[in-house]
Design a protein that fits this description.
With 59 residues, this protein is of the alpha+beta class. The chain is 25% helix and 27% strand. The protein has a three-stranded antiparallel sheet with strand order 1-2-3, covered by helices on one side. The chain is globular, with a radius of gyration of 13 Å.
Length: 59
């Protein structure tokens, strides 16, 4: 089963998304966005950038 993005409104009225793995586990949660379109742009950005993202160790 493929992962999915869930778009929702938080308690303060901001739009957020979470990325869930195929098994339903949440693997990422976004920042809050003031509009639905901005949150959808955030999802698009993750889709475009994550596949080729470099993995680095943080200090």
């Amino acid at each position: 089963m493929a992962g999915k993005f869930e778009l929702y409104t938080d308690k303060s009225g901001e739009y957020r998304f979470r990325l869930k793995a195929g098994n339903g586990e949440v693997v990422a949660i976004s920042e809050g966005y003031s509009s639905k379109s901005a949150a959808l742009n955030g999802i698009d950005s993750v889709r475009r950038n994550a596949a080729d993202a470099e993995v680095v160790e943080a200090d």
